[in-house]
């Protein structure tokens, strides 16, 4: 669908200490097999995930930052976040809206 519209899909993830934009098949497979064990990576988590050489799946704010640094002006997401269920104990509050400015 993306290619038929003239765009190039470029999945963004953090893999073993590197920012990867436009994943190869093997990288997509690694991310998929890691599943829920991939670190949810917001803007604030990028340095930690990279320096720890973890596998990170980017949130919208993480994707937005990395896409911008790579010169990608437009990207697609399933939705933006807010305050997530259970935030009173997890403090899982999305940086998506802040990142949008």
Describe the model:
β3, α2 and β4 (55-58) form a beta-alpha-beta unit. This protein has 101 residues and is α+β, with helices and mostly antiparallel strands. It has a 4-stranded mixed sheet with strand order 2-1-4-3. The termini are far apart. 35% of the residues lie in helices and 15% in strands. The protein has helices at residues 25-34, 46-51, 60-69, 87-90, 96-100; strands at residues 12-15, 18-21, 39-41, 55-58. The longest helix has 10 residues, at 25-34.
Attribute tags:
101 residues; alpha+beta; four-stranded mixed β-sheet; globular
Summarize the entry for a quick read:
β3, α2 and β4 (55-58) form a beta-alpha-beta unit. The protein has 101 residues and is of the alpha+beta class.
Quaternary form = single chain
Unreliable runs:
none
Helical proportion, percent range: 25-40%
| Beta-strand residue fraction | 5-15%
Number of helical elements = 5
Order of helices and strands: EEHEHEHHH
User: How confident is the prediction overall: mean pLDDT?
Assistant: 88
Largest sheet: 4 strands, mixed
SSE layout:
Elements: E1 12-15, E2 18-21, H1 25-34, E3 39-41, H2 46-51, E4 55-58, H3 60-69, H4 87-90, H5 96-100
Parallel strand pairs: 3-4
Antiparallel strand pairs: 1-2, 1-4
């Amino acid at each position: 669908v993306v290619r038929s519209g003239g765009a190039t899909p470029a999945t963004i993830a953090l893999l073993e200490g590197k920012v990867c934009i436009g994943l190869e098949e093997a990288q997509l497979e690694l991310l998929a097999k890691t599943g829920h064990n991939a670190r949810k990576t917001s803007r604030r988590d990028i340095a930690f995930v990279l320096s720890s050489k973890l596998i990170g799946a980017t949130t919208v704010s993480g994707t937005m930052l990395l896409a911008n640094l790579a010169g990608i002006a437009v990207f697609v997401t399933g939705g933006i976040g807010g305050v997530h269920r259970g935030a009173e104990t997890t403090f899982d509050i999305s940086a998506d809206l802040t990142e949008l400015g």
